Target: Transcription antitermination protein NusB
Amino acid sequence: MANDHSPSLSSKRRKARKLALQALYQWHMAETSVSALVAQFLADNNMEKIDQEYFTEVVRGVPAEKSSLDDKIAGHIDRELSRLTPIELAVLRMGTYELLHRLDVPYRVIINEGVELTKAFGATDGHKYVNGVLDKLAQELRITEVAHTPSR
Model:
């Protein structure tokens, strides 16, 4: 039995996060229904190489908890949510959702994945901002895990 952090699972999760970011961006920009988005992405992508369950959970979970996620994010940023780029906002919502609900994923992995997605799709230095905000959120939402993680 493969453990939860085997290379194939982490690769499938990375691809799921990338697709989830694209779906959440589309949801935010076009106000597409979540059900339609999930159906579209499942039909248009080879889901054998993607953690489909993870993708579906995040794409359904972020919009369902948008208000509470935004409240948590707003407590750690220096501007209005509306001033964030759509990519930064989508990554921060995904990361916050994962910090809250995916305790099986180490907080450092969530932060790293958010930074990498922002580097790939966001503004030039957006990844630095996302890194700082997700780090603050991890210290609040994963206080015990952060306290028991050795420094690098």
About this structure: The chain has a mean pLDDT of 91. DSSP finds eight helices and no strands in the chain. The longest helix spans residues 7-30.
